[in-house]
Amino acid sequence: MSNVIPKEQQSAYQRWEMESFGEDRRAASESTAAAASKASQLALQKQIDQARAQAHAEGLAAGLKEGRQTGLEEGRLAGFAEGRAAAEAECQQLKQIAEAFGTEVAQANELIAADMLSLSLDIAKAMLKTALPVKPELIVPVVREAIHYLPTLQQPALLHVHPEDAAVLAKHMGDELTAAGWRVVEDMHQDRGGCRVETATNQVDATTSMRWQRIAAALGKELDWLDRA
């Protein structure tokens, strides 16, 4: 008995088996291709992600570096500006201190000069008051200078002096005064060392107190001869 089944005698089931096997092979092939394509896509995506991550990292590093450099430069400039402003402020403060110190020194010098002048005038007054009793003839040049200031001499011509000075004038220039027509008037209210000249048209105050006030005024001071020296 032959084992070969004629084609006409083959059943539909047997033909379906052959057709089913071919479909499985195609499906398996397509599945393999899809898997390979997916793997390729995944690999490509991985490369893209890696490249993107690397680019991001490099960009971030470059940005950080640039930002750091920019920050350092800005910080340096800001620090320089701040230091310069602080230095200028300190210089201005030192300038103000120097100006204030100079003003204080100038004022101190003025005060010292004024005090020294006052002291000098007080010493001069004390010496003059002491010198008059010791050297009474000092009245003579005072009287001559007072008479010299008169533009003309018209009678009556009166010379008011302290009684003690009158005695000194009588001794040293009595004849001169008499010849010129002067009459010496003893005045207890007159200070030693001074005189007051009176004529019909003029008057000269050469008293010690008035002469002292003129000297003090010329030096910018207001000092009275009667003040205690």
What's the gist of this structure?
The protein has 229 residues and is an alpha+beta fold. It contains four helices and four strands. It folds into two domains: 44-134; 136-229, 2-Layer Sandwich (hypothetical protein PF0899 fold).
Structure description:
By secondary structure, this protein is an alpha+beta fold. It has two domains: 44-134; 136-229, hypothetical protein PF0899 fold (2-Layer Sandwich), CATH 3.30.2320. 70% of the residues lie in helices and 8% in strands. It contains four helices and four strands, in the order ααβαβββα. It has a four-stranded mixed beta sheet. Strand 3 and strand 4 (203-206) form a beta hairpin. The protein is rod-shaped. Keywords: Bacterial flagellum biogenesis, Bacterial flagellum protein export, Cell projection, Cilium, Cytoplasm, Flagellum, Protein transport, Transport. Residues 89-215 form the Flagellar assembly protein FliH/Type III secretion system HrpE domain. It is found in: Cytoplasm.
Residue-averaged pLDDT:
74
Strand fraction equals: 5-15%
Number of alpha- plus pi-helical segments: 4
List the helices and strands in order: HHEHEEEH
Which strand order does the major sheet show? 2-1-3-4
Q: Shape from CA axes?
A: rod-shaped
The profile of the biggest β sheet is: 4 strands, mixed
Q: N-to-C terminal Cα separation, in Å?
A: 177 Å
Alpha-beta classification: alpha+beta
Spans with pLDDT under 50 lasting ≥5 residues? 16-21
Query: What's the β-strand tally?
Result: 4
Structural domains: how many: 2
Whole-number radius of gyration? Answer: 65 Å
Fraction of helical residues = over 70%
Query: So, CATH architecture of the largest domain?
Result: 2-Layer Sandwich
CATH superfamily of the largest domain: ATP synthase, E subunit, C-terminal
Could you name the CATH class of the largest domain?
Alpha Beta
CATH topology of the largest domain: hypothetical protein PF0899 fold
Subcellular location: Cytoplasm
Keywords: Bacterial flagellum biogenesis, Bacterial flagellum protein export, Cell projection, Cilium, Cytoplasm, Flagellum, Protein transport, Transport
Function: Needed for flagellar regrowth and assembly.
Main location: cytoplasm
